[in-house]
Amino acid sequence: MRFFLCMSVTVFCFLFLFSHDSYCSEEKFRIGFSIKTLGEVNQNDAIAAVQLWTNGLASDNKIPIDPEPIIFSSLDQMKNALDNRMIDCVNITTPEFAAIENKIDTNYMIAGLKQNSMYEEYVVIVRKSSGFNSINDLQNKSIVELDTSRTSLAPLWLDAELHLKKLQPSTSFFSKIESVNNLTASVLPVFFNNSDACLVNKSGFETMVELNPQLDQQLKIILQSKPYIPMLFAFRANYNSPFKNQVLSHLENWHNSPEGRQILTIFQTDSIIRFTYDQLLDSLELVKRHRSLQ
């Protein structure tokens, strides 16, 4: 899932009916996405899906909205856009959120549900015949890491676990680290003895096992994380438009429309749910712990 940035901001004034009152907006509602929140989809297809949804949001709710998403390839670009009010809401990974938390309205946040959970657990998997029984056994061995929006916290968690066991960080601990953005490309190298271990999300591995029970016969989990929220959608701080609740409601109903389901597929998500800041604390604590190791 790859999006790239570049769009100019245009200012318009629209009159529309909102709660039976007339309201004038000086700017269009604008949405931004971190490139890290996207998956294995053609960039143009992803942009087209977002445009289709935003057009629907505008026509269904009479919201003046810019259909062109802003796609950020760096955190600095995102910070600048929030500071200059170039976007009103943004989809970001949790590590990115931790870096710009003061620019985000933490009272209005939503996350994607995957298999009825907004959380992800991460696991280190090896072959049962390998003789590896703990993370310690993988020193100077190879590992494949799944790099998607749903695994944004996985490398941080693994480094934190290595530190707890008084081991070196992953870049020094393993002889080879390969990052891939495909679940199958993460697990099968271990299955076929081409890699010693893999780091993936547990839900993804369980889905693979359901489709191919032989994986469960040959592979095992030697380390598992607690649940974490890997990504979220939130408004910028001080965004007080009356559109806010309308947009949130529309997002929560993505799964009920073809356009919304297309977006959810891009984000590897089944549906959308609101959550509180407290539910994010464990995930933010992990980011904080990892920063302290740098």
Describe the structure in your own words.
The chain is an alpha/beta fold. The chain folds into two domains: 14-116 and 229-284, Cypl, domain I (D-Maltodextrin-Binding Protein, domain 2), CATH 3.40.190; 122-224, Periplasmic binding protein-like II (D-Maltodextrin-Binding Protein, domain 2), CATH 3.40.190. It is built from eleven helices and 13 strands. It has helices spanning 43-61, 75-83, 94-99, 154-164, 170-173, 183-191, 202-211, 214-218, 243-252, 258-266, 281-293; strands spanning 14-18, 21-25, 31-34, 70-72, 89-93, 104-113, 122-127, 142-146, 176-180, 197-201, 219-224, 231-236, 271-275. Strands 4-3-5-12-6-13 form a six-stranded mixed beta sheet, sandwiched between helices. The longest helix has 19 residues, at 43-61. It is globular.
